């Protein structure tokens, strides 16, 4: 990832955090102040009703009660021998171990001994990777099962001649709806019935759990009245399947984003190749033109416009007129100092042609006589006439 993209993403996350902080502060701070005022009023009322109790003693008693509640004590009972309402019975301990390796960590039950805290460190270091491997395998198998079932529905849509693009959209929507129905809506109604929560509280617990946030204000099976030993282990198995479903959804979204990124890179690469090819073509043309290429329009010197082209005159074909030959004028001595050099080729060509004609006449058909060797030039009749004129 580029530095500019990383900085932009960091700025976006910080802006998102600040906006969330402002919203939560505006929504929750008035409720906190109201609860603090009510606690003060109850405390003053207790001190007026019991003047023998001092303010310091009451404060110390409240602190001890809070610590006991954090350790899992039940304020409604004085019995310490009944293990069915204990936080550390087998079912509750199994659920606590499950919240460690799933990294949910509700916080309603915490370790109070040093030995327990030391063991939790090594238990988490081993259990979290192990659960991650299990989660990947379950998510793959669960996603494959859901996609296989949705594939039959896609085949039905294709038989009805539904466009493939619309079928893909419908299959994605069905994948999300089936998962939400199995792992979000159904547990919501179950928790409403078993825990006695409202629908908002139940769906709040479901989303906080499956996103591994785990505030701990609502925990399934934390009510001491819930004494079914197998309840919390069943809740943990629901957490396993729900996290696997969300993992498969995130994997699908990641694959889709990867495909989109590859297509975008391929398109950008094609555009870059086209631009490079165009640039290379233009450069080659400019190089081929060289320095004789005409200057640009702005740098061309101002020249008078060329004359307008005239239409050629089409004349009818007629026999060429004979040129008028003037009578030869007496030549000068300077032009004919060496007549044999100037006109020797005429004599040579005429004698050669006459000799070739005689040879061809004497050669029988089908047989060609070789050319005779070339003879030195000799003055012909024309040179003799020219010499007599000169004399």
UniProtKB/TrEMBL annotation:
What are the entry keywords?
A: Cell membrane, Cell projection, Disulfide bond, Glycoprotein, Ion channel, Ion transport, Membrane, Metal-binding, Potassium, Potassium channel, Potassium transport, Signal, Transmembrane, Transmembrane helix, Transport
Superkingdom as given in the UniProt entry = Eukaryota
**Domain Potassium channel residues, every copy:** 86-142, 180-258
Q: Basic residues composition bias: which ranges?
A: 364-377
* Principal subcellular localisation of the protein: membrane
Pfam families membership? Ion_trans_2
Q: Where is the signal peptide?
A: 1-20
List the GO molecular function terms. metal ion binding; outward rectifier potassium channel activity; potassium ion leak channel activity
Instruction: Report the transmembrane regions from the record.
Output: 87-106, 118-138, 169-190, 202-222, 234-257
Record's Gene Ontology CC terms?
axon; plasma membrane
Which reactions appear under catalytic activity for this entry?
Cs(+)(in) = Cs(+)(out); Rb(+)(in) = Rb(+)(out); K(+)(in) = K(+)(out)
Residue ranges, annotated region (Disordered): 282-391
What InterPro entries does the database record attribute to this sequence?
A: 2pore_dom_K_chnl, 2pore_dom_K_chnl_TRAAK, K_chnl_dom
UniProt-listed GO biological process terms: response to mechanical stimulus; stabilization of membrane potential
* Topology in membrane: Multi-pass membrane protein
Subunit structure, interactors included? Homodimer; disulfide-linked. Forms heterodimers with other 2-pore domain K(+) channel subunits, such as KCNK2 and KCNK10.
The text of the family note is:
Belongs to the two pore domain potassium channel (TC 1.A.1.8) family.
Name of the protein in question: Potassium channel subfamily K member 4
């Amino acid at each position: 990832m580029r530095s500019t993209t990383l900085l932009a993403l960091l700025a976006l996350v910080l802006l998102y955090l600040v906006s969330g902080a402002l919203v939560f502060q505006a929504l929750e701070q008035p409720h906190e102040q109201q609860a603090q005022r009510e606690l003060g009023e109850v405390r003053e009322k207790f001190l007026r009703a019991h003047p023998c109790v001092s303010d310091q003693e009451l404060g110390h008693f409240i602190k001890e009660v809070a610590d006991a509640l954090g350790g899992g004590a039940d304020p409604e009972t004085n019995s310490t021998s009944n293990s069915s309402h204990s936080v550390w019975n087998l079912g509750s301990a199994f659920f606590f171990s499950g919240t460690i390796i799933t990294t949910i960590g509700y916080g309603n039950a915490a370790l109070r001994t040093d030995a327990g805290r030391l063991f939790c460190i090594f238990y988490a270091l081993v259990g979290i990777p192990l659960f991650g491997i299990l989660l990947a395998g379950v998510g793959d198998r669960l996603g494959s099962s859901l996609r296989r079932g949705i594939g039959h529905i896609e085949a039905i849509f294709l038989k009805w001649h539904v466009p493939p693009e619309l079928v893909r959209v419908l299959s994605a929507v069905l994948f999300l709806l089936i998962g939400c129905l199995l792992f979000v809506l159904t547990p919501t109604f179950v928790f409403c019935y078993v825990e006695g929560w409202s629908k908002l509280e139940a769906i709040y617990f479901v989303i906080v759990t499956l996103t591994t946030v785990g505030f701990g204000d609502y925990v399934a099976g934390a009510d001491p009245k819930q004494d079914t030993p197998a309840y919390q282990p069943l809740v943990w198995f629901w957490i396993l399947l729900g996290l696997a479903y969300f993992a498969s959804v995130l994997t699908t979204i990641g694959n889709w984003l990867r495909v989109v990124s590859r297509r975008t890179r391929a398109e950008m690469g094609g555009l870059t190749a086209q631009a490079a090819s165009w640039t290379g073509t233009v450069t080659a043309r400019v190089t081929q033109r060289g320095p004789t290429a005409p200057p640009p329009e702005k740098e061309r010197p101002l020249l008078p416009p060329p004359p307008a082209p005239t239409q050629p005159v089409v004349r009818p074909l007629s026999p060429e007129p004979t040129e008028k030959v003037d009578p030869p004028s007496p030549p000068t001595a300077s032009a004919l100092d060496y007549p044999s050099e100037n006109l020797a080729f005429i004599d040579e060509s005429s004698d050669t042609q006459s000799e070739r004609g005689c040879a061809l006449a004497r050669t029988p058909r089908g047989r060609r006589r070789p050319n005779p060797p070339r003879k030195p030039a000799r003055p012909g009749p024309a040179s003799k006439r020219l010499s007599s004129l000169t004399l």
